[in-house]
Amino acid sequence: MRNLSAIRLRCFPLPDKTIIADVNIFLLLPLLCGLGLGWLVNYLADVLPDTVTLTRPKCPNPACAQTPSWAAYLQLRNCAGCGRRRSPRTFITLGLLPAASLFLWLSPPAKLGYVLGTVVFAYLLTVAIIDLEHRLVLRPLSIAGLLLGASAGVLQHGWKSTLIGGLVGLGVMSLFYLFGMLFTRLRARRLGQDPAEAEEAFGSGDISLGTILGLLLGWPLIWFGLLLGLLASGAISLIVILVLVIVRRYKEQAFMVFIPLGPGFILIAVLILYLPNLIGALVPK
Ligand SMILES: [Zn+2]
After folding, report:
1. C-alpha 59 to ligand 1 mean position (Å)
2. Is residue 9 very low, low, confident or very high in pLDDT (cuts 50, 70, 90)?
3. Is residue 277 predicted with pLDDT exceeding 90?
4. Taking the domains of the chain in order of start, what are their residue ranges?
5. Would you give the distance in Å from CA 196 to the centre of its chain?
6. Is 140 in contact with 48 (CB distance < 8 Å)?
7. Rounded to the nearest whole angstrom, what is the distance from the C-alpha of residue 277 to the centroid of ligand 1?
8. What is the CA(96)–ligand 1 centre distance, in A?
9. Residues whose CB is under 5 A from ligand 1 (ion)?
10. Nearest-CA neighbor of 214 among 203, 205, 223, 206?
């Protein structure tokens, strides 16, 4: 019998058990890092838009506004005051970041590497969430993004390409901003509103976001990023309007639907940075 099992082992060599254990621990690390980052992104998105300081997050229900304990917050419990559940975004983020972290661990972007690649992704996700939920790009996040974008840019494509990319992002988004302001004024005049109170189509935060993405993508990729970003933003707006029509909440106000330039540009920048082959396949040669 001993001989037989020896033969079987030789015919079907099983992988060494220690190697299997190593691989699992190896993958646990990026998953845990991603989970931690997911909590951080949720925390920043919960707390920064209201206070711009790192305090304990409050219940988003304005009638309640109770402050849960850290333990209750971290355990994703419902609000003790009004019973409100944590937002779907909380859970989406906690699923998305470990997945992204694992993906970047297994195939890290060539020059960015796993650590910087994951930090940049978490940063862009935070900005996109706050932009979608509050339509604003916060100044402290913009400053952090300029530093992060500049270092990641120089590492990937040198300082010249980074600098020109940043300037192009700044210039193009400033033009959009000016056109948006003009459009808002004209519309307000036609509707008989006070132009000072009319909602602006583009926020000034989009200018700093354009600069950050310019640094990150560099020249000449930023052109491509801005062009595809515009298309993506248009597509997102169209989907939002279609959903509003379907759930019958479409009113004249839908013309006021803002164009989510920020999230659209971020989506495209993420695809260019992390899935360059996918973008390459989309572009006719
Ligand atoms: Zn509450």
Report:
1. 5
2. very low
3. no
4. 156-285
5. 31
6. yes
7. 45
8. 26
9. 59, 61, 64, 66, 79, 81-82, 84
10. 223
Q: What pLDDT, in 10s, does the model give residues 44-54?
A: 999 988 877 77
Residue 17 Cα to ligand 1 midpoint, Å, equals: 49
The pLDDT of residue 148 is 96
Whether 47 contacts 54, CB under 8 Å: yes
For the segment 106-120, what is each residue's pLDDT rounded down to a tens digit? 989 888 999 999 999
136: tokens are 């604003």
84 alpha carbon – ligand 1 mean position (Å):
6
221-246 helix and 261-274 helix, angle to the nearest 10 degrees: 130
Highest mean pLDDT among 8-17, 56-65, 157-166, 239-248: 157-166
| pLDDT score for 262 | 85
- Rounded to the nearest angstrom, the distance between the alpha carbon of 139 and the centre of ligand 1 is 28
Residue 27: C-alpha distances to residues 42, 71, 100, 158, 271 (Å): 23, 27, 12, 32, 23
Please name the helix (run of DSSP H) or strand (run of DSSP E) that holds residue 35, with its range, or none.
helix 17-51
Residue 20 has pLDDT above 80, yes or no: no
pTM of the predicted structure, to 2 decimals = 0.83
Kindly give the distance from the C-alpha atom of residue 272 to the centroid of ligand 1, in angstroms, as a whole number: 40
Cα of 73 vs centre of ligand 1, distance in Å, is: 12
Whose structure tokens read 């056109």? Answer: 179
CA–CA distance, 188 with 185 (Å, rounded to integer): 5
- Residue 95 CA neighbour count, 13 Å, CB half: 5
